[in-house]
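In keeping with the milestone schedule agreed at the kick-off meeting, the structural modelling team has produced records for the first pair of proteins. Each record is given below as a sequence line and a structure-token line. The laboratory manager (R.T.) confirmed that both were archived under the project's standard naming scheme.
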Amino acid sequence: MPIFEYDCRSCRRKVTLLMGMVSQPDEEVCPHCGSRDLAKRMSRFRQGRTEEDRLDEMADRLDRVGDPDSGTEMRRLARELGHALDEDAADELEEMYEQDVVAHEGDTPNG
């Protein structure tokens, strides 16, 4: 089955839809907000990866991370892990990391 990519004009997220061969264009709905206001994207060829492939890639990235107490290194790791999963996940993981940093400002390692 073909995979189509769209930009949702309502929530401004990238949408990837697996479409059946008999699907009609009016069946395209954003899974995030339910909008039908989608713009087709020019997408590149994508080869499916197994979950094991993704986990192996993430493990390799973890091995390459430097000092885990470094905010810069952890931010980079969050971004790389997100890209290993999905383009949208990169932004979400980085945002979650930033929220965690703000929530723990002033904490001491032995505190």
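The second protein of the pair:
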Amino acid sequence: MNQNILDSIRRAPGKPGVYLWKNERGGILYVGKAENLRKRLSNYLKPKDPKTMRLVENAVRVEWILTKTDVEALILEDALVKQNQPRYNVRLRDDKRYPYIKLTVNERLPEIQVVRRVELDGSRYFGPYTDPGSVRKFVKLVRTLFGIRKCGGKAYSIKRPCIDYSMGICTAPCQVMGEREYQKRVEQAARFLAGDYEKVKRNILLEIKDLSEKLEYEKARDLKKTFEAMESLSVAQDVSSAKLKDMDILGYAFHLGKANITQMKVRDHKVVAVLHHPLKGEYLGDGGQSVKAFIKQHYTTEDITPKLIYTSAEAEDRKLLEKTLSEIRGGKVEIRMAVRGQYLKLAEMAVENSLHQIIAETLEKKKVSRLELLQKGLGLTKMPRRIEGYDISNIGEKATVGGMVVFTNGVADKSQYRKFRIRQPGQNDCRNMAEMVGRRFNHPEWERPDLILLDGGKPQLNACLKKIPSGIPVIALAKKEEEIYLPDKKTPIILKKDNPALHLLMEVRDESHRYSKSYHEKKRRGG
């Protein structure tokens, strides 16, 4: 540790604030917060873990920003991390915003919108939702059910109902429906969006009865249509206990050097969303620090904070986080570690989902990596996401057959496999291969391949070239030395035995051999 850093730490005040470790170019390596800057920075004088040692070794100076309170320090820390993306901070890897449904209940004639940012503007927000397309459909459904407007400020100056009223997706509070009656519709829509379907249906039934008694049959009929439409809806999955009200469950997982937090949102006894949040940074293996970092970043700016957050790992600075979120929310927020009962089961479920997400993402990257290597190794202009493999199987001159297998994104896609009974007699492997390939391209409705792989060598390749449309890459893979033959090269390409791209080609070739052979055996048995 250089003398400049030592002097800075000795001068640090015993007050709350944010500190910044910087490199020689002035870049921020790490942002932290402290209730007592001098005490916190003194801990860096004798770092114990390797990552902190590396941080101190790479830093040339440390600076700080004083704040009035530790809550202000926490908020400032989060803003600086988001702005500068320091290498040694744990942070959300994917900072995308999920869509929300916004109901402007603070307006005289509330409207419904789809937004991607939650603001403290008096409106009610529902979400987040993972699929923007589904959100738009859901908003359309809510408008159809309850007649909520979405025309912006025009509602206050419009002179006659617009086309939405004619289409039956707006009740036209601007001209037709009274404000009090419209507000009732808005309240029902809000309860519906919150997931309280049964209560909304009960209220609608009572209102239908009331309207019928008042002989207002047309209004009663309209409400009955709303009720019937709601009856046909499938609602979100029930959680196994009526005690679960509004809460988030956070499941942290660390595997293969990667970390992820899965967020399960429970609203009105139902799991309404499961969201995955990959993390990046230097301290991913520390569950407490990762959970703390996620809560700070996600709930201070990105999401609506529920009253209760259960975590699978004990969050660092839990009390301070609770204090910060309570101030932002304007009501008490509790953060608890799930240790028993139904909460533990839900947390374990979230952890399992989180682990699965890491594994799935890792496998997907491996698939893409193999395809990228294959594209580079063969000099292809595009990534070979659809590879078709061909092989011929026969014994003597009887029951000669061929098999076509398909690998999509590096994985066998058995629904796309095709069998061919060779029509020409004889044991001419090259001619039979050419027949099969030619018949394959008699089907323009089949998806176009990015690469064709023939089981064989240069003779099979030359025999098939005229049957394959221009622009489709084709190779032949010989078994003996795993030589790869290309149309425009005299000598074959030989990839290293440990090359993942070669392994993929061998998988396709071996699968086409297995598939054609199994078909041949079936034909010989009379199948």
